Amino acid sequence: MTNSIPTTGEGPGGAEADALAARAEAINKIYGSGDAEVVALDDVTVGLGRGRFTAIMGPSGSGKSTLMHCMAGLDTVDSGRVFIGAVELTRLDDRRLTRLRRDKVGFVFQTFNLVPTLTALENITLPTDIAGRRPDRDWLDTVIDAVGLRDRLRHRPGELSGGQQQRVACARALAGRPDVVFADEPTGNLDSRSGGEVLSFLRDSVRRMGQTVVMVTHDPVAAGHSDEVIFLSDGRIVDRMPGPTAEKVLERMKGFELAGGGAAR
Ligand SMILES: Nc1ncnc2c1ncn2[C@@H]1O[C@H](COP(=O)(O)OP(=O)(O)OP(=O)(O)O)[C@@H](O)[C@H]1O
């Protein structure tokens, strides 16, 4: 197939590639130059386990969004390599990168980013429609039932609550059965009840539907739903916490504040 996305012989292979949905290898990202230079990512190496729910936390400005954007192929790195599965993102031209994002990656944003003129169902199937692919009906049904939106499918976003809109966005992210879903503060605009529903759904999509979810969050309660928390500080990974609870995460975040690692918001 001439159009296929190339893999690299030097990247993680075999069992390692299978176990990791995404991986960054010694990535650096610098914004600005001279006095205005900011090292947003400083030699970050991290693997995100397949079939796992990973949370990324850290003080404001620690590089969480930058890491997520670089790993999702939404932003470029200055050096180092990024893989989605066995495919090296950092070797792809724009056209192939766009296709990889479309076919292999799902996104959930803090502000939902739904198309207001389309119904919930049309929003959910939009990425597969644009890709010219037929959605897998059984999978779509599974996703729609899992987010609990079957009776809202004909509603437009303006007729849905914030929590319902974010559940539509989650269903949209999962509809194409991506290799990995990146969620950037998915509960940041929601009250705690709606946020809890979205987090339960994201967790269930991992546990019951075998998906892989990576979430940036400031909220220890949200991070407590994950399988593992990765802590960033000053553009570096400083800790990982498997089996987190909200209490343990809060304690760890307080440690950053005491160490002068910036405001934890
Ligand atoms: N486009 C940009 N131009 C210049 N500097 C940037 C840009 N994007 C991010 N930065 C800087 O890079 C550093 C990391 O930013 P990033 O947004 O990744 O942090 P974050 O941990 O997600 O922060 P927050 O929790 O406040 O959203 C910060 O110092 C930020 O000011």
UniProtKB/TrEMBL annotation:
PROSITE patterns: ABC_TRANSPORTER_2. The keyword Phosphoprotein does not apply. CDD domains: ABC_MJ0796_LolCDE_FtsE (cd03255). InterPro entries: AAA+_ATPase, ABC_transporter-like_ATP-bd, ABC_transpr_LolD-like, MacB-like_ATP-bd, P-loop_NTPase. Keywords: ATP-binding, Nucleotide-binding, Transport. Residues 22-259 form the ABC transporter domain. GO terms for molecular function: ATP binding. Pfam families: ABC_tran. This is ABC transporter ATP-binding protein. It comes from Actinomadura alba.
